[in-house]
Design brief:
The complex is a heterodimer of chains A (74) and B (183).
Chain A: H1 2-7, E1 11-18, H2 20-33, E2 36-41, H3 56-60, E3 63-71
Parallel strand pairs in A: 1-2
Chain B: E1 12-14, E2 17-19, E3 26-30, E4 36-41, H1 45-64, H2 67-83, H3 85-94, H4 99-119, H5 123-127, E5 129-131, E6 137-145, E7 148-152, H6 158-170, E8 175-179
Parallel strand pairs in B: 7-8
Antiparallel strand pairs in B: 1-2, 3-4, 5-6
Helix pairs in contact in B: 2-4, 3-4, 4-6
The chains are: A alpha+beta (74), B alpha+beta (183).
């Protein structure tokens, strides 16, 4: 299932907690069509209960920025 | 009279419906002690593609809602998990967690949803910008959701891990296709 995730051209980003082999499969497959991958290592100890894991940065990871101009007073 | 227990059949949640896999196959799910618990659908690559299609269709409607309304809906999700905390904790405890640890995980998952529910109408103020220019026009940088995002959640903690990954993604109007704990 992992390679299908990685190569699906309709996915814009992938956020995953996966092992080394899966990270490689995701990175290889995603190179073609996925704009952003956020790959966390499953081997790494992380305290899921910690409030350090929730932040606006996690929201920013799956956003795109658009810059636009607008005339004053119009 | 002895009563047969009514067991729940876990299924796949796609586009608002609980479906079975198109493969029509199942595989047994066992609890921490190795006892049979339930048959769960064996999903295929085609199921994944169907799910992405459903998410892509749901995307514009979700992104078009006001930020405030998205916050209300995320809050409602947390409310519903809170109301069914016992059921959620029992499901987590099947995987071998102690009842206390399972209850703590459900509480943390609810808190995390509430945290991101609050962000829906606030992240734009933090991440967007009015850029300085030297002529009579405004230059804005605004954020846009990316679209369909794939989420692969860790095996443990099953609920908190999934919530921590998908909540920040849907805050801004993205939609998610999630592959959840495989054990």
């Amino acid at each position: 299932m992992i390679p299908t995730f990685a190569t699906h051209t309709h996915l814009r980003a992938i956020s995953a907690v996966v092992n080394a082999a899966e990270r490689k499969a995701l990175a290889l497959g995603a190179a073609e069509s996925v704009k952003r991958t956020i790959l966390l290592k499953v081997e790494e100890k992380r305290d899921w209960f910690s409030s350090a894991l929730q932040s606006v940065d996690a929201i920013r990871n799956t956003l795109e920025f658009k810059t636009t101009w607008h005339p004053v007073g119009a | 009279m002895a009563r047969l227990p009514i067991t729940k059949t876990p299924k796949v949640y796609v586009g608002g419906a609980f479906i079975r896999s198109e493969s029509a196959r199942v595989f047994p799910l066992r609890d921490a002690a190795g006892d049979f618990f339930a048959n769960i659908p064996q999903c295929t690559r085609k199921d994944l593609r169907n799910a992405v299609e459903a998410a892509a269709k749901a995307g514009p409607g979700w992104a078009k809602r006001t930020a405030y309304n998205r916050g209300q809906i995320l809050y409602r999700l947390a409310e519903m998990i809170e109301a069914r905390a016992g059921e959620m904790a029992a499901a987590i405890a099947l995987g071998g967690a102690t009842p206390a640890a399972a209850a703590r995980e459900v509480a943390a998952a609810v808190d995390r949803l509430i945290y991101y529910a609050g962000w829906t109408d606030k992240y734009e103020q933090v991440l967007g910008n009015v850029n300085p220019v030297a002529a009579p026009y405004f230059n804005f940088t605004v954020t846009e959701p990316m679209g369909v995002v794939g989420v692969i959640a860790p095996d443990a903690p099953a609920l908190l891990g999934l919530v921590s990954l998908f909540a920040p993604v849907i805050v801004s109007g993205n939609t998610v296709v999630a592959n959840i704990a495989r054990k």
